[in-house]
Amino acid sequence: MYFLSGWPKRLLCPLGSTAETPFHVQSDPQRTFFAVLASARLSIWYCRPSVLIVTYKEPAKSSSQFGSYKQAEWRPDSAMIAVSVSRFFFCNHYIAFKLESLR
Question: Per the domain annotation, does 55 fall within a domain?
Fold first, then answer.
């Protein structure tokens, strides 16, 4: 069962154009971070408070070669995100950070 906690929030995503609207949000297993996907952009956010940590924009050459982003899944230790793209590939993004610097 899902219980709401607080009011819905609107994220100010760093979008390059209006065509890049976010369509997929995936939380990590510990609910510390969440990933926001647009067609060629991956953004990683810290949950509380909602703070943008990093944004990765896929280059146009690889975006045309592999296709647009479709879905994301976190590794259980939150050290990597696997992103599936439209032409049946997976893009693995490794994440290196220090939790002490986020607290």
Answer: yes
7-59 per-position pLDDT tens digit = 666 666 665 666 678 888 888 888 888 989 888 888 888 888 888 888 888 88
pTM summary value: 0.71
Q: 68 φ, ψ to 5°? A: -90, 160
Identify whether the C-beta of residue 36 lies closer than 8 Å to the C-beta of residue 23. Answer: no
| Structural domain span for residue 56 | 24-102
Could you report how far apart the first and last alpha carbons of the chain are, in Å?
30
Residue 97 lies in a domain: yes
Number of domains in the chain: 1
